[in-house]
Amino acid sequence: MTKQKTLPHQQYNAYWYQRVLAWIIRNFFSSITNTVLTVLLGYILYVTIPPLFDWLFIKATFSPAESRAACNPDGACWSVITSRWEQFFYGFYPEDQRWRINLAFIILIMLTFWMLFKKLPARKYAGLILFLVSPGLCFWLFYGGWGLPVVETGLWGGLMLNLIAGGVGIVFTLPIGVILALGRRSELPVISTFCVIFIEFVRGVPFITVLFMSSVMLPIFLPDGIVIDKLLRAMIGIAIFGGAYMAEVVRGGLQALSKGQYEAAYALGLGYWKVNRLIILPQALRIVIPGIVNSFISLFKDTTLLTQIGIFELLGIAQAATRDPNWAGLGKEGYIFTALIFFSVCLAMSRYSLHIEHKLNQSSHKKRL
Amino acid sequence: MVLLNSDLLDQPTDNTNKIIEMVGVHKWYGQFHVLKNINLSIRKGERIVICGPSGSGKSTLIRCLNRLEEHQQGDIRINNIPLNKNLKNIEKIRQDVGMVFQQFNLFPHLTVLENLTLAPIWVKKMPKLESEKMAFQYLERVKIPEQAHKYPGQLSGGQQQRVAIARALCMNPKVMLFDEPTSALDPEMIKEVLDVMIELAKTGMTMICVTHEMGFARTVADRIIFMDKGEIVEENAPEIFFNHPKSERTKQFLGQILRH
After folding, report:
1. Does A284 reach chain B within 8 Å, measured CB to CB?
2. Which residues of A touch B59 (CB under 8 A)?
3. pTM of the model
């Protein structure tokens, strides 16, 4: 204790290298155990990091090529990605129409920034446009019709598809989850029983089963002549599955609130929907932000399962690319690249949620009543 | 304070002046008979204090008056509106009946001002500016207008309870229910809340208050109701209640509560 108290003073007068030395000793060599661990870990890092770095960057080949023959066999062959990166992002979407996807994503990103950044004016309208106008607009851009050549959903693929399926899933799972969670706590037995059965059933089966059911079973039950697009069916499956999980997350938040909040709100003369909308949900959802984002992240990653029902999203494209005779055996590169993309998107989501939590905690001085 | 209305008890009851009427009210929690044959009528402007040992059903009784609890037998009429399964009636009655809770139950995600204006805006469709003006008037009355833009979590218990009183008053209720409003407070904060309640009593508000504050009961109440085991054991003007209690159980209760 006394040693720590004198240290800052000593450091103030010391040379910079003395300070660095003191810091190193304090943090890495403060005891025999720590010294041993430091040496051991240092050795492990020395053995693993330089070769990995070598393989990933130094000896790797980045320029586009015809086949893996052009690559340095000692390094990663990123050529498989650089020569086909358009497929990784757009799937089999016709080359001359890809501007439509770019335009749609630029619009979506700009609207999202407009809505989320506090300093910009008229943010409310950005939200309205984002949720009411942009879905239709983007669908028109993606699919076509009305002057644009139609691009069937079978040609969509790559990262664009993960983003679309994930985005649609995220937008729909939260409302579905809220309704199911409220329904589960409803005093009307019909509604609560239905919600419990729905949630438990959907949650109790693997996601891939839901996808297969939506892609294989659903058409059997539909009357002849009615065909629902395969991708749409898959997205309905995603929304239902995510919604069931979300319902339990939201329910956790609802249960965290005291009965007094309901009583005070009802005593003021507010009705069921207003009590939930104005008093209960704003508090409950705030409590479960980490859980909600957790669900969003896992939902986004689950879109890789779409490949299993023949929809070529990013991972499917990566696998297909590395099975191409010209590039055979480059599974590692494909998976590392895919992992990196998913990691960056998920990291962005998680950092943004932390930022929101921090902001909300600051504003309401989170003292429980 | 002068006991203005204690003599009214002996006057013939005037039906038009009744704001609360309970006839033969029973309530059970499962097997537990929590309210037994409650008959009670309260006139406009009357101040009632309900006391009794814990578990005697006094909180349940006032919670039945705005349907936070449902009674299973008997009739309750508030301002001549029957309190039954009819949702319209329940909503109307809840607008007329303000309630203050032991745990304050302010909405922690809203500022003090938003807590006050929420119901006027969403239930009474009052314009925002007007509701804020009114909210400030009530905050003046409970003597904390300077806290309007803070969150409940930043206030002391006494301040929170005063905000809760102001919040109920913002709906311009005809009756105010207080469910042990000072029981969760530190001793030094009890007085500031009781002072606000005494001020409120002076304005002629009909008040029904479950409390153990016998000093408050003595100064403010027109009538004190003593409950035990789900029954109204005794009701009387404070003078008679404190000095000449009739039943053995009341004497026993008063002996315990007034000893110190």
Report:
1. no
2. none
3. 0.84
